[in-house]
């Protein structure tokens, strides 16, 4: 069915549930997971942070590696193939750009319903909504709260 699943991760509980779901799907379909973390540099101004900009970005890159390595460990334990990607930019634009890139060959995006940045969600809309509206592959949205009957 699906062979390359893009899984954007930001450390939120919804993203973690999306990861668990994507691992199960990848096992069923013998698919590869593309684990992605986007460093949202749109929130920072090099001028406003002065000499601390480089240190802050490096700290965010280190956090990205931690998030992706933890996800890779879970996928490895389930014998699921992965590739890791850290990108910088606007998360919603980076996710859609990678999802729509011909060379990435993504055929399903699996992501959480909400992420870590509630303020940004209120002001400019959710990343998930943007991805659902603009991604060419199908998007599977996972909620961390089980549905009730």
From TrEMBL:
InterPro entries: Rossmann-like_a/b/a_fold, Universal_stress_UspA, UspA. Residues 1-142 form the UspA domain. Pfam families: Usp. Belongs to the universal stress protein A family. This is Universal stress protein.
């Amino acid at each position: 069915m699906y062979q390359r699943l893009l899984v954007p991760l930001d450390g939120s509980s919804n993203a973690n549930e999306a990861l668990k779901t994507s691992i199960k799907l990848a096992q069923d379909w013998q698919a590869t997971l593309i684990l992605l973390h986007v460093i949202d540099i749109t929130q920072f101004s090099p001028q406003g942070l002065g000499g601390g900009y480089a240190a802050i970005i490096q700290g965010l890159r280190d956090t990205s590696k931690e998030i992706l390595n933890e996800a890779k460990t879970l996928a490895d334990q389930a014998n699921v193939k992965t590739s890791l990607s850290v990108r910088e930019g606007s998360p919603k634009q980076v996710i859609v750009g990678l999802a729509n890139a011909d060379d990435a060959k993504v055929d399903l995006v699996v992501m959480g319903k909400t992420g870590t940045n509630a303020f940004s969600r209120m002001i400019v809309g959710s990343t998930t909504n943007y991805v659902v509206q603009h991604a060419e592959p199908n998007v599977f949205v996972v909620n961390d709260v089980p549905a009730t009957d």
